[in-house]
Design goal:
Elements lengths: L2 H19 L6 H21 L1 H5 L1 H4 L3 H28 L10 H23 L6 H20 L12 E2 L1 H5 L10 E5 L20 E4 L4 E3 H13 L2 E7 L7 H14 L5 E4 L9 E7 L7 H7 L8 E8 L7 H8 L3 E2 L3 E4 L7 H14 L1
Parallel strand pairs: 1-3, 2-5, 2-7, 7-8, 8-9, 8-10
Antiparallel strand pairs: 3-4, 5-6
Bound molecules: flavin mononucleotide.
């Protein structure tokens, strides 16, 4: 491959890598597409640089050459881990239900970032020299360091999150005018989890100190009820979702495509017609609300009521769910509050502030 072609390929790879790192904020299909392109580009990069591997023996004489090769091997390993965990998350490979592929994927991406930085430090001089190289190397170092030390924030993806629900739920009150019902839909309650279910919250779960699983939307609903008062109920599907996160996403996708919700009920049995306000808490599923939530919102009993939506998500915010909700329901739908899944344990104040604002408008 001509040098110019190689340069363009390397630049494209770099851009693809950073676009992929923003994956948490991109639609899933785009993130997956970028991942496939990156992998194909990396294979091309290896082919384009095959001369290096042909002359490997000669290239391994000095210590610095050996460090360089070790870096390349580790980088290739982390890219492989990235690809395999990504394929497992996307459901393209039957790689077993137990492993926490999200944690693997995130860990591999941080490792790849640091190793890529070292790789660029060694080879980047081919393309950029002098001050610009020093500037870019500094910026790259900063980025790698921020990602590395940002890990504690992403801690939820690595460790089981144990919470004390009673303590988290306590706080400022903002009783809403009228009769209030908080209705939530969560994976917990709609999934037959095994005793030892992986509760690393990349899989959207928490545990209380007694070991009971708690869903994200479930926790938010408890906080919202504590703020606003009134009653609480859960939307439960008759057929449970698979304990495996990836399988749940696939089943959910099929349900959304089919357009028919699974059979569901509200537990405990309440009549929404006897309330004025429904705080509706749900997780974002494929950019919208779960099918059973859409079916609940379409109930005649909600006609003329006010729905206050609180959406928990893995980076997609409220997605299209509010537009879909407004189409689906005969209730008045307020602007939503969105809560990122890692922020659930600290969301109490944001929920109180949000409900106070809504109250002022009422
Ligand atoms: C089937 C399914 C689809 C999802 N789709 C999205 C999505 O499109 N965008 C997003 O940001 N998060 C998505 N997530 C992540 C959830 O919205 C997030 O983990 C949420 O906090 C889970 O709440 P829960 O524990 O109450 O179920 C999805 C999760 C599942 C299970």
């Amino acid at each position: 491959m001509a040098t110019r072609g190689k340069k363009l390929l390397d630049l494209a790879l770099l851009l693809l890598f950073f676009a992929g790192l923003l994956g948490m904020f991109l639609p899933r299909w785009l993130h997956e597409g970028l991942g496939v392109l990156l992998l194909a580009g990396l294979l091309l990069h290896l082919v384009a640089n095959e001369a290096y591997f042909r002359t490997l023996r000669k290239n391994l004489r000095g210590a610095s050459q050996r460090v360089n090769l070790a870096n390349i091997v580790l980088l290739a390993g982390s890219v492989l881990a990235l690809a395999l965990s990504g394929a497992a998350l996307a459901g393209w490979l039957p790689l077993g239900a137990g492993a926490n592929w999200r944690a693997w994927h995130l860990g591999a991406s941080v490792a790849a970032l640091v190793l890529l930085f070292l790789h660029l430090l060694r080879h980047g001089r081919r393309y950029i020299r002098g001050r610009r190289f020093a500037f870019l190397a500094g910026a790259g170092f900063l980025l790698a360091a921020v990602s590395f030390f940002g890990l504690p924030y992403l801690d939820r993806w690595y460790h089981t999150v144990v919470v004390d629900p009673a303590a988290l739920v306590e706080g400022e009150k903002a009783a809403l005018p009228g009769r209030v019902l908080t209705v939530y839909f969560s994976r917990v309650g709609n999934t037959n989890f095994p005793e030892d279910a992986d509760a690393v919250s990349g899989a959207s779960l928490m545990r209380d100190e007694a070991g009971e699983l708690i869903g994200n939307a479930q926790m938010i609903a408890a906080m919202a009820q504590s703020v606003a008062g009134g009653d609480q109920a859960a939307i439960l599907t008759a057929v449970k979702y698979p304990a495996n996160y990836g399988e749940t996403t696939r089943q959910a996708k099929k349900e959304l495509e089919r357009g028919t919700p699974p059979s569901w009920r509200v537990f405990p049995r309440v009549n929404p017609a006897t309330y004025d306000i429904v705080i509706l808490v749900y997780p974002l599923w494929w950019g919208t609300m779960p099918p059973a939530v859409a079916a609940f919102a379409a109930e005649e009993a909600l006609t003329g009521k006010t729905i206050i939506p609180i959406v928990t998500h893995g980076g997609g915010g409220a997605g299209d769910s509010i537009a879909d909700l407004r189409q689906q329901t005969k209730a008045r739908v307020e602007e939503p509050l969105t809560v990122y899944s890692s922020d659930i344990p600290v969301a109490r104040q944001a929920i109180a502030d949000y409900l106070k604002k809504i109250r002022e408008k009422m």
